[in-house]
Amino acid sequence: MTTIVSIFNHKGGVSKTTTTFNLGWMLARLGKRVILVDADPQCNLTGVTLGLTASWPPDEVGPDHDTSQDEEYSHTQEQAQDFFSKNLEKTLYGALKPAFESEPRFLEPVDCIPIEGRPGLYLLPGHLQLGEYEVSLSIAQELSGSLLALKNVPGAINYLLRCTAEALNIDYVLVDMSPSLGSLNQNIVSISDRVVVPTSPDFFSIMAVRSLARVLPRWKRWAESASQNEVLRTANYPFPAPTLKFAGGVIQRYRLYRSPSDTNPVGDPTGPFRVWINRVATSIRSDLVPALAKSGLMIDDQVYASAGIHSYILAQIQEFNSLLPKSQEHRVPVFELGEETLGQVGVVLEGSMRQVRSLLRIFDEFGNRLIAVSEDSE
Fold it and tell me: If you classify domain 3-55+66-375 with CATH, what class do you get?
């Protein structure tokens, strides 16, 4: 049975895309079949996974300007243009067109792209134009009871993801989402089975957590109403009864003062970061969880406990530092980097490999915990 997992927080800068990629790869490493869905119109997950991103050269144009960087950037942009022009139907935007643009054809499973180097892992690419569906989806979700022409829109994403997962015998669909509270995110979260909330150790994450304590129950109420609406219930793509539950939070992007070692495999955060890690964890436990529990969005506490999840935190993940650009360059997760891909020697290599081993352990625990709260919670 497929589990759809939304990786969602309307606060930006909390590494949703990086988390989705690394977590999806780990789940596949653990023997699960996984689709990564890029539902963010910025297409960062698509770019990172397929190697279609390149930053504008950081050096200023001048007599010593490295023109090879310009050439690399131009080549990457041409690759991106070529991919999207040839693969529109393989993107989330293109696959949804029959429903959103009232085309006379039925939604079909997407021919997802196998991710090189990890069997069982696939990508459903994003598209910049996906954001164009926000308005029609918003109207459909508010007025579908009276506008029969829009009745197939609210249930279309659920139908597409489920039928694609069935065609590929998928265990997990991980959805990377934009930092917004728009109708597209509302729809995706509402049709998901689990939601993972990434955060960073700062005050703004606490504000976001408190906001989600109001937003997620409201979306759950809307989903219940939509699933009982006669028009949506009898549409070609029926809107499903909600099954959403809170899998847990993730706290990441903090610096360490003590690096990982054999005796301390995950290292220790610096004092200021440790303070804010505790504050964010407290907010999740005290602000978010009680509100979700009242709305039936929580799993039984015994399941969290048996999965090794304390204070409803699935994982704490330190800053990747120099590992991140290497990960993106080689299109592998940070925990798959090695001596050859790092290109380092001596004490620098030793330090990087300690961090790689630390992140392997963290994501292994993360993946197993998500499996536990997804498959042993009914």
Answer: alpha beta
Per-residue pLDDT of the chain in tens (378 residues, 90 and over written 9): 999 999 999 999 999 999 999 999 999 999 999 999 999 999 999 999 998 875 544 455 555 656 666 777 777 788 888 899 899 999 999 999 999 988 889 999 999 999 999 999 999 999 999 999 988 888 888 765 545 668 889 999 999 999 999 999 999 999 999 999 999 999 999 999 999 999 999 999 999 999 999 999 999 999 999 999 988 888 999 999 999 999 999 999 898 988 787 777 678 899 999 999 999 999 999 999 999 999 999 999 999 999 999 999 999 999 998 999 999 999 999 999 999 999 999 999 999 999 999 999 999 999 999 999 998 644
Q: DSSP of 361-377, one letter per residue?
A: HHHHHHHHHHHHHHHS-
Q: What count of other Cβ atoms lies within 10 Å of the Cβ of residue 260?
A: 22
104 CB-contact burial (10 Å; exposed 0-12 / middle 13-18 / buried 19+)? exposed
Which pair of structure tokens corresponds to residue 373? Answer: 């709260």
User: Three-state secondary structure along 323-337?
Assistant: HHHHHHHHCCCHHHC
Sole residue written with tokens 């549409």: 235
pTM over 0.70: yes
**Alpha-helical runs (H) found in 172-288:** 183-191, 203-228, 230-233, 271-283
Which residue type sits at 238? P
Pairing outcome for strands 194-199 and 245-252: parallel
As given in the structure block, the two tokens for residue 37 are 């869905």
Domain ranges of the chain: 3-55+66-375
- Sheet of 172-177: strand order equals 113-114, 121-124, 34-39, 172-177, 3-7, 194-199, 245-252, 313-317
Structural contact between residues 48 and 23, judged by C-beta atoms closer than 8 angstroms: no
